[in-house]
Amino acid sequence: MAGRDPVPITDALDDVVRSLRGPDRRQVGGLFGRWDAIVGPQVAAHARPLKLDGGVLVVEVDDGAWATQIQFLSGSLRERLAADAGVEVDRIEVRVARRRHTPLVD
């Protein structure tokens, strides 16, 4: 835009994140960047965070059984996310990843 001075990309990203009413980028980076360490290798092998929006963390799992497990663990996961990444999560929404069909080989 004409007449505006350039701003550092980090400031611009902070403005975007604030406009989305989400946590600051350090918290988001802490959650996504440290997911494996926070949830542990067994859970991380089957679940990954997709997005954090308004206190709702969307997690994708590779199997329906893991969806149940994540829901069962949601209270302790929310506590660990707050303690280890500084991210307050009100609710965890779980989605099961679509399986990709591989063509049969003749």
Head-to-tail CA distance between termini: 58 Å
Helix content: 40-55%
- The tally of domains stands at 1
Which fold name fills CATH's third level, the topology? GMP Synthetase, Chain A, domain 3
Rg calc: 17 Å
**Category by helix and strand content:** alpha+beta
CATH superfamily: DnaA, N-terminal domain
Low-confidence stretches: 19-26
Widest β-sheet, arrangement of strands: 1-2-3
SS elements, strand count: 3
Q: N-to-C SSE series?
A: HHHHEEHE
Describe the structure.
This protein has one domain: GMP Synthetase, Chain A, domain 3 (2-Layer Sandwich), CATH 3.30.300.180. Helix content is 48%, strand content 18%. Strand 2, helix 5 and strand 3 form a beta-alpha-beta unit. The longest helix has 22 residues. The protein is built from five helices and three strands. It has a three-stranded mixed beta sheet. With 106 residues, it is α+β, with helices and mostly antiparallel strands.
In short:
The chain is α+β, with helices and mostly antiparallel strands.
Short descriptors:
alpha+beta; GMP Synthetase, Chain A, domain 3; 3-stranded mixed β-sheet; 5 helices; 3 strands; about 50% helix; about 20% strand; extended
Helices and strands, with pairings:
Layout: H1 9-19, H2 25-33, H3 35-39, H4 41-44, E1 47-53, E2 56-61, H5 64-85, E3 91-96
Parallel strand pairs: 2-3
Antiparallel strand pairs: 1-2
